[in-house]
Amino acid sequence: MRTLITGGASSGKSTFAEKLLLASKSPRYYVATMRYSDPECIEKIRKHRRRREGSDIITIEKSTDIGDVIFPERGSVLLECVCTLLDNEMFDEEGNERDVYQKIIDGIGKLSEQCDDLIVVTNEVGSAFDVSYSQSTLNYIRTVGKINCTLAAYFDQVYEMICGSAVRIK
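^ thats the sequence. predicted structure below, dont judge the formating
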């Protein structure tokens, strides 16, 4: 089963995704894409880790090149999150942009080939679209939208999180 979870910031996406992961087949893998870049990110990572404490979820920290991840055996995978991964891949250390749409789609495809259940968390960013954004920000938003549409077409289930409630779209 392939499940895509989208929604706004702090809408409950991660909590819902982790519940789905815990209800799926073992072994369970959590592919974490967030980097330890600032105090807010560090606190978010700690919060997510605390939620997984005591579970049998195996965390794999991989901020780029997710297509290189090899799982020791089939099971269930949670990829958290597409937007963070895109940011990590799209902009180099100097802020230069790269076209990484296909790399990310291919990487998610490689994860999917290795598991029975794949849960992918992403963000809904298109509703905040503003033409006054910088060209880089607009390119990022468009790329997130394109990735989300591609995944939604391919995946079996799509949920949008609204105020902590999962609304099934597909």
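The chain has one domain: 26-168.
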